[in-house]
Write a structure and sequence with these properties.
Blueprint lengths: L1 H20 L7 E6 L7 E2 L6 E2 L3 E2 L1 H13 L2 E6 L3 H10 L3 E7 L8 E16 L18 E4 L3 H8 L5 E3 L3 H9 L4 E6 L1 H8 L6 E16 L4 H17 L1 H9 L1
Parallel strand pairs: 1-5, 1-6, 8-9, 8-10
Antiparallel strand pairs: 2-4, 3-5, 6-11, 7-10, 7-11
Length: 251
């Protein structure tokens, strides 16, 4: 009786062990989506669609190395607009999107890996602007432009700050110079980098009103083992100074 019990127990343990090993398919692959958000992610040719090696940027370099070290397969596509790829990652198992701010209202929507880099939130004005602000409330009297669907735009809505939106954040640099808006709500360093690409320089930071850390957001169905492997790889990269080196190479 005891012998049969041991055999049964051993068989059960073998089945359980097999189930654990089979929990994550070794060929599991993540569909990674990103957007043009220089200097973190960008198409090398500047267009709104790119695939694999035709994508560059701080976050792209970090994410590629992270997946390589974690031994997790992936595909990488840059698409437009942000609203669409965010929705795909939110709704489709096996999908992820980067970089995006990890906000309290988004916390339970995804599984997170990061932080990959910082994103300070600022209001920029033309260099010769006389605008001076001590708070976001003081900005309500001005015409503000922001990026449609972005966390900064969502934050402004939450704070009751009226603003117009553009489908591409760099459009706001041109609007600012043309006098169509008084202030540009954007990220730093992203805003300064985008303005430079548009030939716009000398912009002045009139208010630094918040900050966020940027992450890779994975669909909620992503296996915890995959998330843990990626986070461990990123933590190791940061400890080695790899992440800081990538940041400094672009800025």
């Amino acid at each position: 009786m005891f012998k049969r019990l041991l055999i049964t127990l051993a068989g059960t343990l073998m089945v359980l062990a097999g189930a654990v090993r089979a929990e994550v398919d070794p060929n599991y692959s993540v569909v990674l989506l990103t957007e043009n958000f220089p200097p973190y992610n960008m198409a090398i040719n500047g267009k709104n669609f790119a695939h694999e090696d035709n994508i560059d940027g701080i976050a792209v370099d970090v994410v590629r190395e992270m997946f390589k070290r974690a031994g997790v397969q992936y595909s990488l596509t840059l698409r437009f607009p942000w609203d669409r790829i965010y929705k795909l990652a939110l709704e489709k198992p096996g999908y992820g999107v980067f970089v995006t701010a990890r906000l309290p209202e988004r916390e339970e929507l995804f599984k997170w890996v990061g932080p990959i880099g910082p994103d300070d939130w600022v209001l920029l004005a033309k260099g010769d602007s006389s605008i001076n602000l001590a708070s976001l409330d003081e900005a309500k009297q001005y015409r503000i432009g922001a990026y449609k669907g972005d966390a900064i735009s969502e934050y402004l809505v939450d704070k009751g700050v009226e603003h117009s939106t553009s489908l591409r954040d760099q459009e706001n640099a041109r609007k600012l110079v043309a006098g169509q808006i008084d202030l540009w709500a954007t990220g730093d360093p992203a805003g300064r980098y985008l303005a430079k690409q548009e030939g716009v320089s000398g912009l002045r930071t009139v208010l630094r009103f918040d900050s966020a850390e940027l992450y890779l957001a994975l669909n909620k169905e992503t296996p915890d083992e995959i998330v843990a492997k990626l986070q461990a790889a990123l933590d190791q990269m940061r400890a080695e100074g790899f992440v800081d080196d990538i940041l400094n190479s672009y800025l």
